[in-house]
């Protein structure tokens, strides 16, 4: 099977709390990349803001972007709450249930990648 499916995904912590600060942001980025690689998908770019995450990812349509995001959010929530116990005190669960996902077909992958990269400076 041949495919070229790239997605821009954004999700937020519960109540959009600004809890994704250093060193949590650095560890979250590592965990996201680790999860994507474990499931043999393609991490193009990931940026962590204090109150949301931007991910540009290539995903096999038979695997499913919904499944990949569920795995990422579940694994990162579990790991971060173990490694940073203060998160348990601040939030009943780390992630909001919903997320945004859009395909990158309307613009080039490079344009979306530059947009995601530029978010850190804001």
Automatic annotation (TrEMBL):
Residues 2-119 form the Transposase IS200-like domain. InterPro entries: Transposase_17 (IPR002686), Transposase_17_sf (IPR036515). SUPFAM superfamilies: Transposase IS200-like. One of its GO terms (biological process) is DNA transposition. It comes from the Bacteria. GO terms for molecular function: DNA binding; transposase activity. This is IS200/IS605 family transposase.
